[in-house]
Amino acid sequence: MSNYTTDLPEMASGLTPHPSLPELAADHFVLTWQEGPQPGVPLKNDYYAIVLCLGGSATKMVGSFRLDVKPHSLFIIAPQHTHYFEQSSKDLQLLSIVFRPSFLADSFFRDQELETLLDQHPGCPPIQQLQPAQFENILRLYRKMYREQKQADRFHLQMSRLLLMELFYEMHRAITRCPESSAHPTSRQHQLYTEFLKLVDTHYLTKRTVQEYADLLFVTAKHLSEVIKHETGKNALYYIHQRLHQDARHLLSTSALSVKEISDRLNFDTASHFSRFFKNITGFNPSVFRLNLAS
C-alpha cells in the first residue's frame, strides 16, 4: 500500500502514513510523500501531479508512455491520464506536488500560457532526468512550498501559486529539451503523428480503426500507418488499442463493474470480444486479471 504523508522525506519518519491522497480542495495544493514498493493499480485523477524522484527506481506507465523513474528524474501526470506502476524498488522515494487546474484560476497567468507550461509535447514522454543544479533548484521550491503549506500564514496560497509558477518555468527549462519537440520542428509527418495521438485520446471509445482516424486527418490509412511506423516504430493500431487497454485496466482494478458492464462501457459488441482483446494484450482474460489483483 502506498504511504503518503504531507512532510518532506527527512521529516517523514514517525508520521502516520495515509492510505490514499487527502481530499484536495479546488483552491489548495498538497505535497505528498511515497516510499517503498507501490501497487500496480491503474489510477485516473482530476488533478496534476509533478513528481520528483529522490531515490530508488520504478517503471511507471503514464498514458501510452513507459517511464524509467530513477533518482533526480521529474515526471508529470496530467488530469485524466491513466497511470500505474509496473514495478518499483523497496528504496523508492517520490515527492509530489498535487493540485487541480482551478488552483491557478486566480493567478495572473493566462490560460494559454499555463497550458504551454503544463502540457507536455504529445510525442515526448512526460519525464526528464534533471542535472544536479536543476534538481537542487526544484527541490528548493518543493521545500518552500512545504513550509507555506505547513505554516499556513497570511497569503500562503498566493505565495504558493507564485512558487508553483516558478517551478513550472524551472521544469520547462528541462522538459523543452525533449528531442521529439526539437528534432521535428517543421516536419509534417511528426505533426500528423501528434494530431493522431490527440484524436485517439478523444475518440478511442467510438473509433477503432486506422481508416477512421485517417479520414479525420484527411489522409489515406496507408499513409497514416507508414507515418506512425516511421515516427515510433509501432503501428497505428497499437496506440488505439493501448488507449482502450488503459481504461480497461483502470475499470477492472478500481470499479465493482462486471466484465460485461465494462465491455459495454468501452463499446465492445460482446463481452467475449472484450475478453479476447484484453487477453491479447495482457496474456490474461479480464476475470483472471482481476483475481490476480486481489491475491
Secondary-structure blueprint:
Elements (H helix, E strand, L loop, with lengths): L8 H4 L16 E7 L12 E8 L2 E5 L2 E5 L3 E5 L5 E6 L4 E7 L11 H8 L8 E3 L2 H20 L4 H20 L3 H5 L4 H16 L6 H8 L3 H12 L3 H19 L4 H7 L5 H12 L3 H9 L1
Antiparallel strand pairs: 1-7, 2-5, 2-7, 3-4, 3-6, 5-8
Organism: Chitinophaga parva
Keywords: DNA-binding, Transcription, Transcription regulation
InterPro entries: AraC-bd, Homeodomain-like_sf, HTH-like, HTH_AraC
Description:
This protein is α+β, with helices and mostly antiparallel strands and 295 residues long. The protein has two domains: 9-180, Regulatory protein AraC (Jelly Rolls), CATH 2.60.120.280; 188-294, Homeodomain-like (Arc Repressor Mutant, subunit A, Orthogonal Bundle), CATH 1.10.10.60. Helix content is 47%, strand content 16%. It has helices at 9-12, 111-118, 132-151, 156-175, 179-183, 188-203, 210-217, 221-232, 236-254, 259-265, 271-282, 286-294, and strands spanning 29-35, 48-55, 58-62, 65-69, 73-77, 83-88, 93-99, 127-129. A hairpin with a 2-residue loop joins strand 3 and strand 4. Helix 6 (188-203) crosses helix 7 and helix 6 crosses helix 8 (221-232). The model is unreliable at 1-7, 13-20 and 181-186 (pLDDT under 50). One of its GO terms (molecular function) is sequence-specific DNA binding. This is HTH araC/xylS-type domain-containing protein. Residues 194-292 form the HTH araC/xylS-type domain. It comes from Chitinophaga parva.
